[in-house]
């Protein structure tokens, strides 16, 4: 069985993430979305909340699971004996960071491959940070995050202002 892990901070999941999930789920028998901690980013939603939001969005995809993991993604891969990491690339600006991550992960465990999927051009401008900032200043985020979680994001940002 071909299994892949799609790790990320997903704070919150965007339409761009959803697009990668939908496409990767067609290529692999099983896709596990793993909510991981990015120590460089300050969180809006806590990890269980992010998992719950993603679960709601991926409900139509029978072969997609959602989990969280506190620690190195490569340790998750080892524990579950999974050999493929999927990452989305939006633009050249993502490349250096993702390249470094892929190389570090490969150095930690050379049996694990990172595969990159190009984001649909429709979402190439999109990031969770841009969504949060837009919502925070009262901008419309419809079409930027899946409809299933739109109100959760607006409400959460409203509570934080
Ligand atoms: O969505 P993001 O913020 O770009 O995802 C980054 C993430 C969470 C995948 C990355 O920070 C990560 O892998 N965190 C877990 C710790 C880890 O494995 N780091 C890689 C070696 S530095």
From TrEMBL:
Domain spans labelled Cytidyltransferase-like: 5-133
Record: residues binding substrate: 9, 41, 73, 87
Gene Ontology molecular function: ATP binding; pantetheine-phosphate adenylyltransferase activity
Gene Ontology cellular component terms for the protein in this record: cytoplasm
Record EC number: 2.7.7.3
Subcellular location: Cytoplasm
UniProt key word Transferase: yes
Function summary: Reversibly transfers an adenylyl group from ATP to 4'-phosphopantetheine, yielding dephospho-CoA (dPCoA) and pyrophosphate.
Family recorded in the similarity comment: Belongs to the bacterial CoaD family.
Annotated protein name in UniProt: Phosphopantetheine adenylyltransferase
Organism: Clostridium oryzae
